[in-house]
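Hi R.,

As promised, here are both runs. First protein below:
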Amino acid sequence: MPRALFAVLAVLCATSPAGATYSITGADTATGLVGGAGASCVPYEVIVIYASAPGHGAFNVQAGFDDPARDQAVALLADGATPDEVIAAVSDATLHPEAPQMQYGVVDTLGRTAAYTGPEAQAYAGHRLGEAGTLAYTTQGNILTSAAVLEQAAAAFEGAGCDLPDRLMLALEAGADSGEGDSRCTDEGLPARSAYLQVDRPGEPAGSWLRISVPDVTPEDPITVLRDAFDAWRLDHPCPPVDTPDPDDGATDDGSSADPASEGACASAPGPRGGALHMAAVVALGVGSLRWRRRRRQRQPGRP
């Protein structure tokens, strides 16, 4: 992306609302993983809504930009504050005047969740909280086609997936089912223009394990591009082993020992860091950026 164009987008990001966004924030109490996924009809990378304190919790801030609130949330999570305490702090309009139009979703590694939808967030706006085994999540959105976006995302997160990255990806896809999504994009046959997925491991810098950001790839669906990049990353980071109790202590009918690795991808051990992550990012961002530049020359960007 040319530096001049990047500078223009940076100004837009600093002064315009991250409207018409839906996202999922999640954490796994068993592994300490935290992460988020989101999609929006904004003309820049929607990953700017996500922040985390690896090993503690994750946070999505949307419907507007409030960097001080985002930074305060991360600091509070790192210091051990509960999600409820985080929400109380960042939604205090005396300290954060933009709070009435904002949305926040926060989850910590103890499985605690909290969310906030300001009274001035544009309809349809709302949030959902839930859990699935060792996983906890929030999903939130504004200027959506309907409440079905959040309901579909929540049902998908709770319904399937071998780990936190898998469930975040499935939830993001499900939010766009049946023509739902960002109400400003759906008349073009798209649920959004930009999408992201990030999952962070305890003890490692945020964004170092799984970080995929898809910019505007119109007329393609950014969630589809994100899925392709995620599947590429998954090749080197397969689903974790699944413990299946066996009354015969693993013995098969012929007396041999069962091999968990033969049970499919979700029985494989996690792969090494790196590798496909970089390939996925290059594929998603390299191809996306080329298309982004080409489309930008052909049309003016819409309001964020």
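And here is the second one, sequence first, then its structure tokens:
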Amino acid sequence: MRKGLTLLETLVVIGIIAVLVGLLLPAIHKVRESAHLVESFNNLKQISLGLHHLAETNMGKLPGSVRGERPYQQDTLVELLPYLESGNLYKSFVGQVLWTPPLNFLKMQVPTYINPLDASQDYPNATIGWNIPPSQLSVSSYALNAQFFAFYPRLNKIRDGMSQTIWLTEHYGWNCNETTFIYTIGTASRWKPIQTPTFAHGGPVDGRPPPGDYYPITSGNPPKSVAAGGKTFQVTPTVIDCDPRLPNATISRGLQIGLADGSVRILSPSTSPETFWGMVTPASGEVIPFE
């Protein structure tokens, strides 16, 4: 008759299994992150292609990141909905030029606007005061470059070249230091608790950026080096340390960016402020030395 396992043998087997699980977990995490990154890249591509199609149907002109100027009545990401298979949502906005939309406008989440790597969705912003689940809130995990989109631009106004200009980045959409980025709200007076999904505003808190090139979160022109306090973007900050004025990378490898030509890249954390803000500003003729 065969003996059963002794207690010692059982503990050894459990220990081996625990070691194997410990070895497998990082690999599983890496595979999951890679799959989410592919999905996020696809989202950025869809948004970029949609922007090009939107411009083609309007003689090269794009909507701005604020409301109220014809021929567009809504923000960029709202006007883009029909080009992302969300035409029914867009119809809900037709004719609405309200600065503060009805509550149901805040419950229109679009899958393409959600970065699966955006961990801030696990930390809803408690300060906004709405009883709306994060899974329904009209959040965008992708931010438009306000240096370009605030002025109802035309594609031929990107004088630096479309392959040299960032028009989309990622950021923490649900909670970035108690700021939530809602794409259905045309404007907001403060960073907290609600703001439009944009970055690179001209002022430190409020308002549109001034015309021309401007380095928003740095002192001086050209911007300071990182060592001297210049800023580019944050890499995997906590929601408490998150800066809503800057893009927020969701992976340690760097920041996901969408260029105006429709291409998608990961920008290294070692990117200099000169290079980063040269890619953000669309009009100074910088030739970007990609790192």
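A quick note on the second one: Residues 163 and 261 are 5 Å apart (CA to CA). Let me know what you think.

Best,
J.
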